[in-house]
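Here is one chain, start to finish.
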Amino acid sequence: MNHRLKDILTSERPREKALKQGINSLSDGELLALIIGSGIKNSSVIAISEQLLARYQGLFALSQIVHPNQLTISGLGPSRKLALIAAFQIAKRIEISRARQTTRLADVEAIVNLYQQRFARLEQEVMFLVMLNGKKELIQEIQLYTGTGDMVDVNMREILVTLLRANTVYYIMIHNHPSGEVRPSRADRFLTGELKEKASQLGLKFFDHLIFGGNQYYSFREHEFWDE
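Its structure:
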């Protein structure tokens, strides 16, 4: 059905339904409709929301979108696309904040449990720097790179400055291979070795570099020799 929102019974509109029955009463499509706000001519905000869910097969794939240009659907302008992306980003940061309070990244398993689902099905290559204190508790994480090429262009000096400013003791590199092949490339090995060498001169300990692809991962720590 393709009704305009004004033609829907007032009690069935997402905003009114949420106010009357509570936010948990809303479907995924209705929650998206609240964020999007309004529809366009001949297409209600509910219809647009349902099209989004159908195209991306649910909220998870939709939540992985990081740029408005990736949302190719009529009825959404740049501002609404950004609002939707921002809502998902807030949810991710809440989860990160919760994890910081409850999770120690003391081994590879803990890192995989926290990050694999976030990186597994991304369509672009993304690299994160994760900073830990002396107890291997998460201090901060930042995104260093996003793109589509095989080469990851990162500024080594900026990484080292970031680590020092955060009072880092241990740190982790994490990135994904959208192809699903998790074995490190020559560039991955070069970056890992160079950063490990330069950081160690500053007393910073490289804990691991993980590469995610699909349901698999590669850990430098598990496959190669590491100094504690």
